[in-house]
Amino acid sequence: MAVIKASNADINLLARLMRAEAVGEGQLGMLHVGAVTVNRARVNCSDFEGLRTLPQVIYQPNAYEAVEHGMFYQRARESEKRLARRNINGERRWPAKYSLWYHRPPGDCPPTWFGQPLVGRYKLHCFYEPIQGECDEVYSTF
Length: 142
Hints:
Elements: H1 8-22, H2 26-42, H3 54-58, H4 65-69, H5 78-88, E1 101-103, E2 112-113, E3 116-122, E4 125-128
Antiparallel strand pairs: 1-4, 2-3, 3-4
C-alpha cells in the first residue's frame, strides 16, 4: 500500500531522480535516495514544510544536484521505476530509513550536515536524520 499518493508520472519522476543521483551505487543506493525523497514528502517540517507531493519535493530549489545539473533529464528505465514503486510502497532501509538529507562529500562523512546528525554511509553518500524533536513524524510507521 502506498505511503504517499503517486501517479505514474510521479513514479517516473522519482525513478529519474534515483537514477541521476545514485546509479553508480546500484539498486540499494538508488533505493536510499528514493527513501529520503519519499520521507521528505511524508513530513511537514524543517526544510520540507508545505511540500506534500513528489514533484514539489524534487523540484524544490537547490534540493537535488542532479536536477540542477542536468543528469536528471535522462529517461527512467523500467528497473528504476520498480525501485521507485518499492519506495512509494514504504520500503526504507538503514541508513536512509529515517533520513531527510544525504550528502556526497569528497572524503569522510561530516558528523553533522547543517546541524543534523550523521546516521551512516552507503558507498559514497552520507545520510542524516533530523535532530530529536525537529521532524519526529519521519519516525512514524505507515
